[in-house]
Structure formats: structure tokens, C-alpha cells
């Protein structure tokens, strides 16, 4: 179901960013085209080199590619994609998406996209449960986005509760089910 689908994977700053490498690998194995966009803080958790190697595409991090005037056009990216998956989605990026802030390439691409958007949050228990974060999830759902709920378990802080990034296999299943349903609608 993902063969030839164009997927933008947005990776945000989170200890769970290592799972993005596993997700990219599974998407490529399913024959999807994957374009990774890293937020600035994400590159402190996982390197662009790792994700570029697995996706077979340069990882995008900024609007401007070089001082010669080349840039990463967020509008073109938004129109190119069949889906955007933000995994892990930090509380910061969720808030930006919910409230229309676009101070980075990922959020600008999100606001320019016409495709379905899947948000897989990862954050600590108290952050995940905070009313402002829950309100932002509600807003995102209201805009037609899909929230892939965080899992329950041991968190990086040592606390136990909801906040773990969904496993790559779970995210893949959500995407495959979505495109299978879309394929049947004619």
C-alpha cells in the first residue's frame, strides 16, 4: 500500500528520534519515497547522515541550502507529499502546528501541505497529560490531522506512563491501513 507513496517524515527533538531511523528503513522497504525534515533540536539526537543514508535522499533542515540562493521550497514539499508523518512530534512542534507557527522548514511545510498528516507524539508523562498539550491534540484533530497515540511504558525520565513514541511497526500499520482505505474509495 505504500509503494511509490511520497512520505515526508518530520523528526523533532526527542530521545525517541532514534526510532526515526527504524521507521525510515521500514518505509523504504515498503517502497515509499521518503524525504526527511529534521528540526534543529532533532539533529542533537540523531544525525542527518544516518537518515540520509537510510532514505537515500539528503535530509532537509533549513529553508536555505547554501549562500548561492538555493533553498528548500516548503510549498513544493507540501505539494509533493502523499502524507506527512511527524515522528517523534515534540510538545513544541505540536504547539506550533496547532497554532499556525512556522518558524522552521517542517512547520512551514505542514502549513503548505494538502495531504494527510499523521502526528506521533513523544514526550514525558506530565507533558503529554498537560491540558495545553491535550488541547493542541484536539486542535490538530479538528484540522483533519491524525494523532497516533503515544504508548504506555517506561519513559526516558524513569517515570512510567503514556508518552512513548509509537513503535515504527505501529506507525507503518496506521499508514498502510489509511492508504488501503483510500485505495478502495473511487
From TrEMBL:
Domain of life where this protein originates: Bacteria
Ranges for domain Flavoprotein: 5-175
UniProt cross-references to InterPro entries, sorted A to Z: Flavin_trans-like (IPR036551), Flavoprotein (IPR003382)
Classification via Gene3D superfamilies: Flavin prenyltransferase-like
One matching Pfam family: Flavoprotein
Protein name as catalogued: Flavoprotein
Upper taxonomic lineage: Bacteria, Pseudomonadati, Bacteroidota, Cytophagia, Cytophagales
Amino acid at each position: 500500500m505504500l509503494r511509490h507513496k511520497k512520505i515526508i517524515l518530520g523528526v523533532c527533538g526527542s530521545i525517541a528520534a532514534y526510532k526515526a531511523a527504524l521507521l525510515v528503513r521500514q518505509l523504504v522497504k515498503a517502497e515509499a519515497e521518503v524525504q526527511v525534515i529534521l528540526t534543529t533540536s532533532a539533529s542533537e539526537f540523531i544525525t542527518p547522515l544516518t537518515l540520509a543514508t537510510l532514505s537515500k535522499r539528503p535530509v532537509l533542515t533549513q529553508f536555505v541550502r547554501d549562500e548561492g540562493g538555493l533553498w528548500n521550497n516548503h510549498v513544493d514539499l507540501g505539494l509533493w507529499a502523499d502524507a506527512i508523518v511527524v515522528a517523534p512530534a515534540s510538545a513544541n512542534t505540536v504547539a506550533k502546528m496547532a497554532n499556525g507557527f512556522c518558524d522552521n522548514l517542517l512547520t512551514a511545510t505542514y502549513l503548505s501541505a494538502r495531504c494527510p498528516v499523521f502526528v506521533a507524539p513523544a514526550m514525558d508523562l506530565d507533558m503529554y497529560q498537560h491540558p495545553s498539550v491535550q488541547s493542541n491534540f484536539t486542535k490538530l484533530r479538528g484540522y483533519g490531522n491524525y494523532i497516533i497515540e503515544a504508548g504506555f511504558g517506561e519513559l526516558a525520565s524513569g517515570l512510567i506512563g503514556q508518552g512513548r513514541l509509537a513503535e515504527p511497526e505501529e506507525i507503518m500499520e496506521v499508514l498502510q491501513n489509511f492508504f488501503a482505505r483510500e485505495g478502495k474509495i473511487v
